[in-house]
Amino acid sequence: MSTSFEADRVDQLAQAYWAEHRTFEVKEDASNKAKFYCLSMLPYPSGKLHMGHVRNYVIGDVISRYQRMQGKNVLQPMGWDAFGLPAENAAIKHQASPATWTYENIAQMRAQLKRLGLGLDWSREIATCDDSYYRWEQWFFIQCMKKGLVYRKNSVVNWDPVDQTVLANEQVVDGRGWRSGALVEKKEIPQWFFKITAYAEELLSGLDGLPGWPEQVKTMQRNWIGKSEGLEIQFEVEGHDPLSIYTTRADTLMGVTYLAVSPDHPLAKHVAKKHAALADFLEHCRKTSTMESDLATAEKLGMDLGIFAIHPLSQKKLPIWVANFVLMEYGSGAVMSVPGHDERDHEFAKKYDLPILEVVRAKEGEAHDVQVQAYTAYGWICHSGPEFDGLSSEAAKLKMADFLKSRAHKKTHYRLRDWGVSRQRYWGTPIPVVYCDDCGAVPEREENLPVKLPQVENLGAGNPLKTLQSFIDAPCPTCGKPAKRETDTFDTFVESSWYYARYCSFDQTQSMLDERADYWLSVDQYIGGIEHAVMHLLYARFFHKLMRDFGLVQSSEPFINLLTQGMVLKDGTKMSKSKGNVVDPGALIDRFGADTVRLFSMFAAPPEQSLEWSDAGVEGAARFIRKLWTYLQNCPREKLDPLPSKARGELHQLLMKINQDMNRYQFNTVVSGAMKILNLLSEVPETERALHQEGGKILLCVLSPVIPHLTHVLWQELGFPGLVLDASWPCVDERALVLEEVTLAIQVNGKLRGTLTLKANLSEEALKQAVLNEATLQKHWEGKSIRKWVIVQNRLVNIVVG
Ligand code: ANZ
Ligand code: ZN
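Above: the input record for the complex with ANZ. Below: its predicted structure, written as tokens.
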């Protein structure tokens, strides 16, 4: 046997074997094998695999194969996040239906993934646009409706007045519709929401139980949830009902110089009824963006309502203003304004010439000119009366709450908003609701699910379902009278919030999930991009808790460990179509074979860091693979037992490092460790056949997760038993490690009496025994008693005798 390396032949041999033997199809194992569920985020079927996908899926595959060699029952599934806007755009462009376009893309990408040799259980493949998948999503939504976990309310959308359609945020370019170029307007329409805020506290506290998640991701989720603890304080209002405000800085109460309410606050609306200028102002605010991020930077605008509140402690009159930066959806939609200590209030007070007071100082007695700039940190209270002056902010907060008694109570708020899932789009899961004049919004009957998305061939502007009578007309599920179907579809984040669970029960036609889900869940290792840190990962955690509360799963978190892989860069920038710097993995595989592409993507950088593309690096990977192949051609096949030697010690030293790196998923140094082993073995004389065999076997094993094709073929050709992917991971031979020798100076009562060459790192007991056994030295302590041993590891032994 001495063939040269042919990537195509090797790839095909291995892949044909896996396909024929269904090597990666797994069942729930009742034996004592531990399960391991390894999952990479499912791709959007754009039609072409890019290097980011390759990296993501190879990382997942290396972990899966490694865990399998650790003796685990490993599940690694794959599917398609197949609904969404790009299919509609492509359909308009290419005059094809979104369904045709999507399924063609899936076929292409599936073939490309198969070319990579990923150890996937393809029998569990899911496409989220299949009605066998989304029917359970519709069923789940209906359960949520019944439990009051979804509701409908008016919410603002981008409206294109020329195309007469709702636009997604990414379809608004510089404030204009992407197709029509018309100025986009805000419009309020009813939409469906999931009550994710009901789970805010658990979504927050659950993060503490996820040590296997990157700190950065947990911080982003914490900030997104945005827990805030403060006081709700009631202010009396002359001639009106009292006004509630929310504050986290009750210590600044004596610095309040006015109150401000949101343009959507009932009080503002009430006053506007008899105040035309105010009504115009509220209308103007409604039209401009209400995005929180925009408001933070937008110009502060306001208007005096002409009514007064009474300060609860000083009893002074405080004017009430309406201000565009006060959000109706947060707190109580009203604030106590403290321009001395809050930046927004300061900017507003300067603009409208409202008084600014100083009530907090950095240090006792040290003034800060709050007329010029707000002092926003905690500090020491001043100008607040003898009860409060001199207190710290923390202490003053507590005392204010005491003083206010029933006019204040503790409140916790979250920045997290309920999740709006209505999309005015065609290519998505139909929301399973029917509107009846008599019964209102009624869920479709479960036996009528799925509500199928009808095939539409020629898409134009807007959602074609809106005019498709055969879809819209439906009997009311409650009273049977003619009624109208909802034409909105779900946000595609809904599909990706539970797909990981459906893989476990992929062929179940009677229910959403079954007991198999509890065998596999939670996912042991999840791998994907950092761009999903907040939305996808938060929504999936939320869905998992809903499924738990519906009795569908037992665990509380979907993903135990999370790995967010770095970006693939070329010349320092992200590979992207728009920059024209994409490298096509398909062409690379054709040229070098799958193993080279896999090896390069694992070798070039640790998984979490960004990977700089390099043609030279790919060539280097290809060279290593050819060298490895050539070296292993001569691997002895007869049965041999390893003999101790210095080189064998080094081999096991390298293996020890590889095993440590494999455990912490540092695959780049695993590969470089294997390269070192190959260099080491190349220097060992051919006569040391046992070492070549042992080293060759170790190389095949440790590289098999990364380059599964070559290792599969050679393992079989060299006559090792079974499959390399089921071989057990190689262990370090501890005895081989201690072969290194050292020469020790032996002293008796501080005088050098001789030297002794021994194995390094002997235990104290073994060392003493070796010294006492040395015949040439025994005369120095014969007939005397040994009082003390002084030992300097690997260097010196001094025996004190007397
Ligand atoms: C008085 C005050 C004085 C405030 C001071 C801050 C600094 P977090 O921590 O993010 O929850 N606020 C309350 N409701 C609001 C709303 N609906 N729209 C805009 N701002 C609102 O922020 C809480 C603080 O945000 C509250 O504390 C309130 O201003 C403001 F020196 O009250 B503070
Ligand atoms: Zn009805």
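Notes for the reader.
The chain has a mean pLDDT of 93.
Residues 228, 246-249, 252, 326-327, 330-331, 333, 335-336, 338, 341-342, 413 surround ANZ (ligand 1) (CB under 6 Å).
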